[in-house]
Amino acid sequence: MVVRGYLLVAGAAAVTLPLVLDLPVDASIPVWVTAAALTLVSVLNVEISRMITGGLARTQQPHKALSAWAFACALLLPPVWLLLIVPTTYAHARWRSIRVPLWKWVGSAAFLVLAAIAAALVRYAMVDTQANWMHGDGGRGLATVVVAAVAFLAVETLLFSGSALLNDAADEVWLRQTLTSWSFYATESGVLVIGGLLSAVWTGGAWFTLLFIPVYVLAQRASLHEPLRERAATAAQLARKNEELELANRFKIDLMSMLSHEIGNPLTAVQGWAQLAEEAIADEEPQTARKALAVIERNAVQIRAVLYDIFTMVSSDRGALAAAPEPCLVHHHLSAAASGRPPGMQPEVECPEGLLASVQPGHFDQILVNLLSNADKYAGGATRVSAVARPDGQVEVRVEDCGPGVPTEFRDHLFQRFSRGAETAPDVLGSGLGLFITRELARANGGEVRHSDRTPAGSVFVVTLPQSA
To answer: Does pLDDT of 101 surpass 80?
Structure first.
């Protein structure tokens, strides 16, 4: 409420002072013509601004440009005309472009009237009532414009500063930032120069304004174009930052989901084989116990490899999986993956002994485990795991099952993150990440994963990887 009282006092002073101050001007041009010209130029300014900004209808700069017409009025007309020029120009600007709270709008207009009173006092003190104060070499007139502009800017800044200090900080963030920015004073000085030049030209004869208008239009376009270009650059930079943050956030989600999935599967196997080992020891079956412990060790190694790969991804800070392919014996990895399945669900392995694929070993193991785990969940286990060398220099690994297959309507979503079939999701535990991760790992190693139907029933998941010489 304090700021409302401050603005009320400023408004009362803005209405009273122009009425009581006697600062006449011996104008050679009728005052009503000058007032009409200032109003028309203000209208021109607003309309040009709208065209350049594409019809922009929101801004928080109610004093910008409008200061020029208040300043020109102070130099060309008696103060009482401020009570016409300022409200008229403000009303048009509010109608056509500027949208701010009404009480701030009225306060801003009052501040401009008071700042213009200061400029009018300077004008009266330096050139008295002289009509053409740019006569002779124009030195006195130029000095008048400069000193009056300084007085206008000083009073305007003082009044706006009072409003910024008295009002709540949250409501005046823009104004406080503006008043502490050198760009505001540079811009406002340029606006006052425009008003001063218009006044100087007008004193030499109204028809000289025709020469001023094209210059003004070009200046206005230049002054508006630069902030717009800066805004566009800032907006583009902000969009890039937002995109980077979105990618980083998506990568974080993928990473955490992958961590849960890729460690969860081996831990489940460890738990199952640990129970089997405990039973084998109790039943004095050392061979079964040794096999169970070997599987537990292999899964522990896989968990360690997953953690290592995840830490590698984080340190790379690329937002994508990174791989370090090396020659791998395909048969060894297929046999290890198949023997790691529960008893009764171990698939047949068919692969040439010396076949080499170029792939990061840990990634290859994860790909195989994911595909076999997927077959266990949805198809009762894989029936065959095979690999062959293709003529095009690729190694083709096939994981086959005899399950019900993938529903036609779900195939387009099969490799998407968190995708699960509506029919099986309620009954089968999972996160919908296995096939997504499998594809990402294959692609990171220069390969690909695809699905096809198996005749007469079931599915075939085909992994292609570069062959190593």
So the answer is: no
